[in-house]
């Protein structure tokens, strides 16, 4: 795999940017050129958030992933996986956190959370890989590590050894959260590999 | 300061981090600005270089004036802002073009095509033209750093402030950046008396006006030969002229084409453009937003295709460029699915929520302003009726009062954040008092500039690097400008706030209500232990009072009649509210609204 497009999607406050940073550093350590684009601003929490990460053995020009060209989507929230469907193609792999976070219209009873929002993906033959990252992180004692559980799951599909991520955890995260994140990363990998 | 040569290092930086590194490598001494997405993180990173004096100014005009002063003292200076901030700073900008500089002076302005977090989509390149200043436009973080250093050289060599245009897809993009040598200005810092150059009264300004034209001519000559403008040879059937991120999208969509990449977007290299146009069969100009390059290229009498096919609204992407040129729709994209939207929301425990709940209840016209609280517009709070630009809410409310007279009395309020009030709201307040208005102005004092990410301001009690500093006393400040009625409330106390608002709105003269409670995302508040409230589900009648706050930590759980019955509730109860204890921070607003003891303060074992 000489190049790839990874799309991180979810809800503000879920640790999406940290997850995309960890992945980026692992790819840099492996010698890829890469660009990452994120949109933030306009209030802190609760909005739809996405980060585009593109890597290439030679050179990456555009920081934006083109619709229809996502190789891996890492969705931190179930409904958000479906929101970016036009970015996917039949070969895309979608790793989705089974957690549900209610948008305001649902939380106030004005709309309902769609029960079957991933059907639109599976109907197209897209590989959807569910991970209960929230439950796994809760078991590890820190729900905030759910993002790294998902990075662990994603890592099994990337052209990199797990050690590249271990190094990122050891060098880029504050010491007090390294252990729980290492465990979260390993648990995320295990969640994929046992299938 | 590290001046010894160091080995180049490959770094993974955002455009804004790269600009900060560029400021360090250019030996900038003074940096000032006002936070504004997507420019904010430039100064947040510059402050990490201890040799650079860095500050947040109350607005962009002051920030630029500080940088101009530093330049006049012979050091390199940086001012940063977003596009709408450049409007605020436009006054000193246009005249600094006449004075020129001593130490290099660069103004970084970040545009926001597609308005990810802005109230308009203006193209800052127009300021380069209008103020007769050179402008550089990098395409990615690596160029952002290099171009900033080049900008300082240009500034000193051509005696001019230099504009550097970033945008969301440079500032908030990360890429690999190679560190370089720290270079310094050839100037000696110090006071030098140069009245003919620096005192812009008409007699001097008329002389400088001539110098500006001479400089323009020299810059046009530079543009012809500068490495900032380069031709990348390729298939000559189609040629592209592009700058900034548009260049990247062209390279992505048409890797075989021949491209003239412009790094200096004003003034333009006319001969280079002519030569380039002559070598290609068909010429396209690809640029975000306005036809800035295109208009000038067409004015040279050169045939090119631009906004006839390239959209002028919203940011470009490789797909948009490809489709515009080839006319081909992207192949076989999946149709989007219908989902409930997920707009941004005020945080759980946000002190603004209680205020907007009350404003909604009071059914007043809310003249709004720029900040997190602009989200008070969204349902269910739905309590913002106008919002134009920073600091405008106060003047707009006064204008409505004057326009409607008695009819407006008690029906219009202005809301404005602490940082925004100090940015440009204070002048509006002075105007309202002076011109005998009757507005009620609500200052939402959460001690911080919330929306852009908790930057301290003159009301916060710290500087950019969290050194303690004097804190503006809003009640005293308001009294000092002549407001007789100033009251401070805790916005979490909904009923008490409601009573104060009612009294002040009814008052036929200017009054100020300060809602004072810290933003939940400030450093101190984040450290404070959270005591979440929890639901007493058996008491909940489904009255939905708490849901009217729109707090993300409260979710509606629908019930069928059978489920309601099984829970021991009335069959007609459609559901119940449930607090998400992982998100709740215990602000108490919903607790105050609940009449059925369905929300409890008691700690639960978890």
UniProtKB/TrEMBL annotation, chain A:
GO terms for molecular function: indolepyruvate ferredoxin oxidoreductase activity. Signal peptide: none annotated. Its EC number is 1.2.7.8. It comes from the Bacteria. Pfam families: POR. The keyword rRNA-binding does not apply. InterPro entries: IorB_Oxidoreductase (IPR052198), Pyrv/ketoisovalerate_OxRed_cat (IPR019752), Pyrv_flavodox_OxRed_cen (IPR002869). This is Indolepyruvate ferredoxin oxidoreductase.
TrEMBL record, chain B:
Residues 530-562, 575-604 form the 4Fe-4S ferredoxin-type domain. Keywords: 4Fe-4S, Electron transport, Iron, Iron-sulfur, Metal-binding, Oxidoreductase, Pyruvate, Transport. Its EC number is 1.2.7.8. [4Fe-4S] cluster 1 binds at residues 540, 543, 546, 594. Binds 2 [4Fe-4S] clusters. In this family the first cluster has a non-standard and varying [4Fe-4S] binding motif CX(2)CX(2)CX(4-5)CP. InterPro entries: 4Fe4S_Fe-S-bd, HACL1-like, IorA, Pyrv_Fd/Flavodoxin_OxRdtase_N, THDP-binding, TPP_enzyme_TPP-bd, Transketo_C/PFOR_II. It comes from the Bacteria. GO terms for biological process: small molecule metabolic process. PROSITE patterns: 4FE4S_FER_2. It holds the Pfam family Fer4. [4Fe-4S] cluster 2 binds at residues 551, 584, 587, 590. GO terms for molecular function: 4 iron, 4 sulfur cluster binding; indolepyruvate ferredoxin oxidoreductase activity; metal ion binding; thiamine pyrophosphate binding. It catalyses: indole-3-pyruvate + 2 oxidized [2Fe-2S]-[ferredoxin] + CoA = (indol-3-yl)acetyl-CoA + 2 reduced [2Fe-2S]-[ferredoxin] + CO2 + H(+). Its cofactor is [4Fe-4S] cluster. Catalyzes the ferredoxin-dependent oxidative decarboxylation of arylpyruvates. Heterodimer of the IorA and IorB subunits. NCBIfam families: IOR_alpha (TIGR03336). This is Indolepyruvate oxidoreductase subunit IorA.
